[in-house]
Amino acid sequence: MTEMKAILIVGILLIALGVISLAFQGITYKTDKEVINVGPIQASAETTKRIPLPPALGAMALVGGAILTGAGLKKKLKKSKES
What is the full DSSP assignment across 44-70? Predict the structure, then answer.
């Protein structure tokens, strides 16, 4: 894999992660916690937890991805002009 392809792939991945981060603004997951376990009687509670992702993180990923994609495309165009 050439350097320009790697830069393009990383840039596109960062753009995708930035958009997803801005759209969902966090990661939500569920956990089961056993509340009561006395003989044959069992009870559990499902709790939902959220890990917030700051919008600035998504914006930085989006901007960084755009810069890397632009740099990769610039290298690709420069190399195609030389050929």
Answer: EEEEEEEEE--HHHHHHHHHHHHHHHH
The H or E element that residue 22 is part of is helix 3-24
Residue 78 is which amino acid?
A: K
For residue 9, with 0-12 CB atoms within 10 Å meaning exposed, 13-18 middle and 19 or more buried, which class applies?
middle
Helix crossing, 3-24 with 55-82: angle to 10°?
A: 160
Domain ranges of the chain: 3-82
- Per run of 10 residues, the mean pLDDT along the chain (length 83 residues) is 80 91 88 86 90 90 92 78 70
CA 59 to chain centre: 11
Alpha-carbon gap, residue 52 to 10, rounded angstroms: 24
What are 53's two structure tokens? Answer: 């992702």
